[in-house]
Amino acid sequence: QVQLVESGGGSVQAGGSLRLSCVVSGYSNINYCMGWFRQVPGGEREGVAILPDRGIRWYADTVKGRFTISKDTAKNTLYLQMNNLKPDDTAMYYCAAQIGTRYCERAAIRFNYWGQGTQVTVSA
For residue 74, which phi and psi values (nearest 5 degrees)? Predict the structure, then answer.
């Protein structure tokens, strides 16, 4: 059973930084497409950053230059470094994985494993 567990969320002031972590268990490695998504109440889940198993990282325009997605395969952990946070970044953040798919696709519906989410709140 593949499980994803996020941590690192919290409350910060605008301009601050947070690093989210996502530990993956139940699978031998994390050499597959993974990503971070976020969702506000009443809103759709939107992609923030995608790390393909091979290829170029993708970032949403709203976070380019501020957020960095990375992974540590030895720790089976995915990260999202978030700098210069803005109030509009306030949301529940989710880690997700596409396991067993041929291509890494950005749409949330293509991700078949999800974490429970970690809340990020940025005050002005």
Answer: -65, -30
pLDDT digits (tens, 9 = 90+) for 41-54: 999 999 999 999 88
- In this prediction, residue 1 carries a pLDDT of 87
Helix (H, G, I), strand (E, B) or coil at 23: strand
Biggest alpha carbon–alpha carbon distance for the chain = 42
Which residues of the chain fall short of a pLDDT of 50? none
CA-closest candidate to residue 71, choices 1, 4, 11, 119: 4
Distance between CA atoms of 33 and 5, rounded to whole angstroms?
16
* Cα–Cα distance measured from residue 23 to residue 25, given in angstroms and rounded to the nearest whole number: 7
Structure tokens of 40? 């506000």
